[in-house]
Amino acid sequence: MKEYTAIKELPYYEELDFYKKQKRIVLQNCGLIDPEKIDDYIEKKGYQAAAKAITQMKSKEIIEEVKKSGLRGRGGGGFPTGLKWQFAKDAEGEKKYIVCNADEGDPGAFMDRSLLEGDPHKLLEGMMIAAYAIDADEGYIYVRAEYPLAIRRLKKAISQAEELGLLGENIFGTEFNFKIHIKEGAGAFVCGEETALMASIEGKRGTPTSRPPYPAQSGLWGKPTNINNVETYANIPFIIDNGAEEFNKFGTENSSGTKVFALTGKIKNTGLVEVPMGLSLRDIIYDIGGGITDDKGFKAVQTGGPSGGCIPAEQLDLKIDYDSLKEIGAMMGSGGMVVMDEDTCMVDVARFFLTFTQSESCGKCTPCRLGTKRMLEILERITEGEGKKGDIEKLEQLGKVIKEASLCGLGQTAPNPVLTTIKYFRDEYEAHINDKKCPAGQCDALKGSYVIDEDHCIGCGQCKTVCPADAITGKKQKAHTIDPEACISCGACAEVCPVNAISN
Amino acid sequence: MAGLAKSFGSGAMTNSIDEIAGNDLIFVIGSNPTENHPVIGAKMKRTVKNGTKLIVADPRRIELAEYADIVIQQKPGTDIALLNSMMNVIIEEGLEDTEFIEEHTENYEELKKIVSFYPPEKAEEITGVPADTIREAARLYASQDKSAIYYAMGITQHKSGTENVTSITSLAMLTGNVGRKSTGVNPLRGQSNVQGACDLGALANVYPGYQSVTDPDMKDKFEKAWGVEGLSDEVGLTVVEMFRAIDENKIKALYIMGENPALSDPDQGHIEAALEKVEFLVVQDIFMTETAEYADVVLPAACFAEKNGTFTNTDRRIQKVNKAVEAPGEAKADWEIICELSNKMGYEMDYNSTEEIMEEIAELTPIYGGVHYDRLDKEKIQWPCRDREDKGTQYLHKGGFIRGKGKFYPSHHIPSIEKADEEYEFIMMTGRMLYHYHTGTMTRNSQPIDEHVPDAYVEINAEDAEKMGIKNGDRVKIGSRRGEIETNAEIVETVQPGQIFMPFHFAESPANRLTMDELDPEAKIPELKVTAVKLQKT
Amino acid sequence: MKEIIIDGNSYKFDPGQTVLEVARGNDIDIPTLCYSEHLSITGACRMCLVENKENGSLETACTLPARDGLEVETDNDKIYDARKTVLDLILSDHPMTCMTCEANGDCQLQDLAYQFDIEESSYGSKKEDRFELEERNSFIVYDPDKCILCGKCVRADSELQCSDAIEFSERGFKTKVAAAFDEGLGGEDSSCVFCGLCVENCPTAALSYKPARKKGREYELRKQRTTCGYCGVGCQVELNIKGNEVIKVDSVYDDTAPNPDGEMCVKGRFAYGFIDSPDRLKYPLIKKDGEFVESSWDEALDYIADNLSRIRDEHGGREIGALSSARCTNEENYIMQKFMRAVMKTNSVEHCARL
Known about the structure:
The structure holds 3 protein chains of 3 kinds. Chain A is 40% helix and 12% strand. Chain A is built from 20 helices and 13 strands. Chain A has helices at residues 17-20, 38-43, 48-56, 59-69, 81-90, 111-118, 120-134, 148-163, 194-201, 230-242, 244-248, 281-288, 322-327, 346-360, 366-383, 391-405, 409-413, 416-434, 462-466, 492-496; strands at 97-102, 138-144, 179-185, 225-229, 258-265, 271-276, 298-303, 309-312, 336-341, 451-452, 472-473, 481-482, 502-503. In chain A, helix 3 runs parallel beside helix 7 (120-134) and helix 14 (346-360) crosses helix 18 (416-434). Chain A starts with 16 loop residues before the first helix and ends with a strand. Chain B is of the alpha/beta class. Chain B has 3 domains: 2-188, 3-Layer(aba) Sandwich (Dimethylsulfoxide Reductase, domain 2); 194-376, Rossmann fold (3-Layer(aba) Sandwich); 426-537, Barwin-like endoglucanases (Beta Barrel). In chain B, 32% of the residues lie in helices and 17% in strands. Chain B has helices spanning 2-8, 33-36, 38-49, 79-92, 98-104, 108-115, 120-127, 131-143, 153-156, 161-174, 194-199, 216-226, 239-247, 261-264, 268-277, 334-344, 354-364, 373-376, 447-452, 462-468; strands at 25-29, 53-57, 70-72, 105-106, 147-151, 184-187, 206-207, 211-212, 253-257, 280-285, 297-300, 309-312, 318-321, 406-407, 426-431, 457-461, 475-479, 484-492, 499-503, 531-537. In chain B, strands 15-19-16-18-17-20 form a 6-stranded mixed β-barrel. In chain B, strands 3-2-1-5-6 form a 5-stranded parallel sheet. Chain B has a 3-stranded parallel sheet with strand order 9-10-11, with no helix packed on it. In chain B, helix 1 (2-8) packs parallel to helix 10. Chain C has 8 helices and 16 strands. In chain C, the strands form 6 sheets. Chain C has a 5-stranded mixed sheet, sandwiched between helices. In chain C, strands 10-11-12 form a 3-stranded antiparallel sheet. In chain C, a hairpin with a 4-residue loop joins strand 3 (49-52) and strand 4. The chains are: A alpha/beta, B alpha/beta, C alpha+beta. Chains in contact: A-C, B-C. The interface between A and C is medium-sized, with 32 and 35 residues.
């Protein structure tokens, strides 16, 4: 029989490195309550903020509190939420709408999903308070259809809230009425853009429209509308419950509170983390994330999703908030954080992200539709070894115009990965173009032919067997050789070599 | 137009195309604007998209019905019962405009009496329209501030055409929807210058400007102006009457300018016989039409693109026609031909231009008194326009009717002449379609159009077709008491069972071989919309 | 008084006006491709970018509302660079086939390429077609490769004609304008009624009139405005003539017309072929022994005059009737009734108003 040793001190989860520096406001209940039970939420002080707001506060007071909290839009724009509510409140109109943007489209980002699936009532409560504050009586949650569990739980949450009279008419015995609908998105990334999102709710083609008019004046069906994302609304109950001052204790001067990031890429601890604004990248990547996989060198981190920016190692101590990120050409975005190690080719990374934004361009405005296409063509050329002198300058010029001239946020940010990688890793571009080399060894077309180190070769013949080009010759037990003319640089030989004798 | 003139004192669209955008409610009855007045149809759709309410009443489910708040598919020839019933509801529910009725109308008691016989349940029996639908339509029409009615030949081409129209005018007066912007009673005229032809006296009873031929003062005025004596003070014959008079040897010579009665007029067999019989026939046209074949002399005329002049459109707007190309061969403008003929017959008609003719028109026609070519290039002129200072009239009857007070002319339901029976079990309606025009003289000679819609067809309800084993494109024979034709079947859901619809543009399948020339006794318009026919697969 | 500052000068404006409207009203040139005063505004092409001096951002003049104190510049290096780049991009996806193009001389894209001096796109020219030519109907040819996706056709279709026959399909670089289920105009599920407003609004030759193809280009055509000869709406139309032949019919934009936004229907737009038909009557014909024989005007009119005089004198004018025409002009109807009344002494003059 095996012997077990008792674990003397089972740590509290706050004591784990992964959690030590986190502060959970938005994700507070996630994983701790049963999201399909409204009682669980209520037990965690759920709907207390709504009750307080609706029965004890005037809408002006709520908006003031939100303003004071300094809460900024967590969807990426970072616009002050209180101010946005103020505009919608001040807009004239009998009918007003509340819209929640839950069209989380960034690859690898699942902050909203986690909340929708883990604590749906928190969102409903945030929306209720917003609706009461701006005099809306109807709300829409626009959620991507790829989140079936989230949709199911939201629906359940709505019907539970309706049953308890938390949604519907005369909420908390007041004059306040509010109902919430769910609208499933059809998978277009651009529908995360607020005007496109509202067009989609209206049943139109999901393309953005020019602002002004802003949604606060003329939004859903031409009515004054307040639109925030999931995480933004999820901050509201805390602010109302504990007051703006308590909220202000977290974060930096101009970016208060916390932010949820989705850590992914070449990092040991992946997953969602919620940290106070102002933590450094190093804190997040090394202390929380546990450092780079296989302890390789850190090269860059892409923040803000596919249209965010690549931040190099020299910025590791940057205190993360809306303004600091913007300053260095990146952005907060919805909170994606893709960590890259030393083996990553930055030109290829730029190409990868641009492939995504280009294929998700709605096609309405010229710079985004054709500009991203042409940028991508240039990047593809460079990674295929066909780069030309002047390509970098062309990318910079075109990128600048696309940013300035595009109609919506998608186009206005699409060139970011290209521009930031050029800014911080220009030498890699130059190596591709001038020397026809990929310093990270990632771009297939730029890999040289493979060579066998005769001193190490044991003549096992495995390489010869897998070579698709029949470029390898050699007798058993003797050192083999690769014909550089025939080699197609596929690397299959290097992969099977048991003694790592093949390299390029 | 007779009904409209009778009620209001003037027979033209009361309001303007430009005002459609301002309608709160559009009531389309017996008109298919998207096919026959496409630009007006599109304007209606645009207005409805912006929130204007729409009621469509037509035996067929026309395209506009797709945009309508209320769709009414009354049986052909039951418009009076439908309208009476709507008025019944309006009075019953106190939705009428009492102030307007008192101030601006007469004969209201008579109307009240007659429409009291038409509660919706009774109207349902006659029209086939559910009583509640009639109620809803009445309420919707009466409840809007600016309700406008648009109608066309679906209303007038009946034996009861005049009464149909007076029922429409009654509905408008009852709710005070006349004499204000974006309201009114608006007949949509079918041809480019049908309004102008009426205005300029191509009518047997009036000189230009609707000045009666029986009025001695008018006779006097025109005799002086034209320098002749002995103008007839006897009302002349209308089109269908002329053809009957040929039968009776009372018309010996016929001069036809730009018309094709052999195809457009009802009871074609009869028309052909008359054209054959008349002693002397002159036809002046741009093509050798079916009618021209019968002529003793055919004169080649210039078409609209080859001459100058003016057209007056459906909203009384006088606009210039400008010469763009030379007429082929020796063809001449119609006015030049008539003038030359007149000169040969010893009566001098010496005009150097159409502008000179318009100057004479302006002098003799009060409603055209202010119409001058130099104004037409830059101004929107809608008659009445009495002098140079007059900017024209966008909508009629502002502040009071032309005839003083508007008169209610209520009528009981008048059954159509023919009914479906054992032998002739279908009711046929005729009309136009988008791609062709009238007798096809122009459209069927225009390649892309004729390529797009080359063949005649008859619309048959899908249920009927299935029962009879008729499939799309099958050849079918249609017969009436007057004749028989063959055409292709088009199976549709838009006509109701027991009804068929046929466009009359096609000489190879001439719908008017089947129709009858029974006239509305007042307006002298034939009943083209209700013909009993039998249908058979060939 | 409220004023906006454009290029350093103050201009008055009406509430609701955009910067583009104020600028154009004061003869300040701002290029556009997707803008039309007859359609809603989308700000899609991005050619009309101007610089908002408040924050240095580029904004589309067509969507930017004029407001008191707003200061914009319409022409500086930054704006020029952005506009030229946008144009360069459009040209990178447009065939450079002006030589044989229907729109040569009547193409907004060509005009702008000339203005910005772009002979060939710096991204390389479009060498191969990406789409199929659509011409399965008798009226309109659609060449998606020449389409710059300004969307004016889509808006004209949905906002003016209201037939909702075309929409954008696909997205991004693959976007094209398509009819229902991409079956083409006139396809089985197409609600197109061939009013031609889409062609009228197309800034290039992506849409063109099929019957007019290869018949002549803008600078070869003579224009004559007139009133349409079909229904009673009385649309104003512009006949385009080459030699003595009507080649196509364009819209007229005039507030005094019943169709101020250039609206038309398939008949007004396409049913003009009859004018030049070889079957037109060219000479007077007199029926002799059952056959029509060509005659001179003198002979024909003498023959008519003799017969009408005879019948009038023998039987009286009341035995003569005339049908005037709802398709003839006011002047002609007047002349006809005058002739019948004054010369024939009868009131039996009618027309087909009742049919």
